[in-house]
Each structure stands twice: as structure tokens, then as C-alpha cells.
Amino acid sequence: MVQTIPYDLQQVICEMAIGPNGTDSFAFKAMRVSKAWAHFVCSILYRNYIIGDYLQFVGFVKTVSSENCLLPYGIYIHSVDLTSVNRYGINMRAHKLIKHCPNLVSVTLGHPTSVKPSTILMMARHCKKLHSLQIGGLESHPFMLETNFSSLNSLKHVDINTTPLTSSSLNSLPLTLERIRLIKLESINDQDFITFIKGREETLKSLAIIRCLRFKGNIVHLLETLEHLEQLELVGENINDKTIEGLFDLPFTLKSLRLFDTQITEKTISALAAGRLKVHYLDISNNSLLTDEIIKPLLLKRHL
């Protein structure tokens, strides 16, 4: 009587033989052993598939979307990064790829992206398991982007870079967000930011506002209710002493605070040194109105 190795043990053996990156030549031999082993291999090879160049991308999409595949390769894909192929005009293939990958957890479109709004809309409707989304500037879309993200209930991390997003689209992002980076969103003003923060006080842990030129209000109005905030990043010449006045009086503890390329002066440094805000890691760099002589005493006083 032939003894069969238990299913879970087969999986362990297969994973060990393939290696952590699925690059071992054994991977393709293992796929021929049985359908179960082919499943093990695909779950490793395609989980975080790295797209190196355009030809590889074309072949990858063709394989995933083929109707005559032995296995439904699309279901194994958990993350996709299109940054390396953006410049080629990839919208049609990206649309097809996303359509056949229902288990996507992370999508990076890169910046700028040649993906069109229709593909982003489709992703918002179909990628129900998406945790992380990065959207770059849309080369072919000079108008305001109206997108409803409310169906992405699993979304936790969002990076939006130079995308002409409307305030209603921004506010449609789920209330469960834990981390958001907003980069060069020139259409979003102070009130839009305040409205966006409302309802996200219990979940938001990381906030980055980077070169959003229309943000000129006081940051305290955004942060005063964010008791669970752990990371804060403010970048751009629109950030000055007035913008962050009162920030260091908040009774919060931040794991990290980054103030980069701002117009803050010694006044802000003095407020930070005397304030109640606790910071574990502080990055104050490339600020034209500050010198090392001003910053060093602060670092010594706060033991940073």
C-alpha cells in the first residue's frame, strides 16, 4: 500500500525546496508533480510578483487573463507594482490584470501613471480585499478625478500623489484608514482636510501632508482629536511657524515626527523644546531658516 505524505507536510516540503523568493529551478519541476504542488508553487511565485520590464509585464498579463490556463493564476496574486512599466501606456493591460486578480491586497500604480480613471474606478468596485493603494499623477487626465472609494472596506494604507482628486472623492475613502500620504494635492484646501479627518479619529495612525500648497491653516485643527496618531510628516514651504503653532502643546506621543523643507524658524524649535508633545524619533532637515546651531540644543534637551 502506497503511503501518501500529509497535505500540510507536502506544502512545507515544497515551500522549503522552492525558497523564499520562488527563484529556484525546482519551482517549475514541482509544478509538474501534481495539481496540489502546482498550487503550492503558484501561491509563492505569484503572491508578490515583481514586474521587471514591459515584455515581462505583457507575458504576465497574458498568462493571468488566459481562459485556457490549467490554474486560475490571477487568484494567487496579492500585490502588484506597475511603477517600472508606467511609461509605456499600460492602461488596457492594467485593466485586464486587475479584473482577473480578485485577491489583490496591495496595488502600486507608480508616479506618474498612464492608468486611466476608468481602471481606478473598476479597482474601487472589484478589489474588495485591497489594504494598500498608491496612486500617482494621471498623465492622460488633466481634469478633476471623481472616484468613489467607499466600497474598499479593507483599505488601510493610501498614497495619493499629484492626482487631481475632488474633495468628495477624498472623503469617500473608508473610515478604517490607518495610514495616508497626500502628496501635491493642489485641489484640496484647509476645510477639505478638516472634513476628511472627521470620523477617522479612532483609526488614523499615520498622516503625511507633502507639498499640498493650499493647506495653510493650523495643523492643530486637524490633529487635536487624533489621539491614536503615531507618525506625522509635514513637508513643503507652506509649512511655517503659524501652521504648526500649538502642535507641541498637544498631550500626544508620536513615534516619529518629520518636518522637511519647511519655513519654520527658531520660534518653532523653542516651542518644541518646551512643549508637552513627546517624540521618539525627530527629523528636522533641509529647513532653510534653521541652522545646526539652533537645532543641536533642542536635540540634546529632548534626548533625540
TrEMBL record:
Gene Ontology annotations of biological process type: SCF-dependent proteasomal ubiquitin-dependent protein catabolic process
Signal peptide: none
GO cellular component assignments: SCF ubiquitin ligase complex
InterPro entries hit by this protein: LRR_dom_sf
The protein's name in its UniProt record: F-box domain-containing protein
Organism: Circinella minor
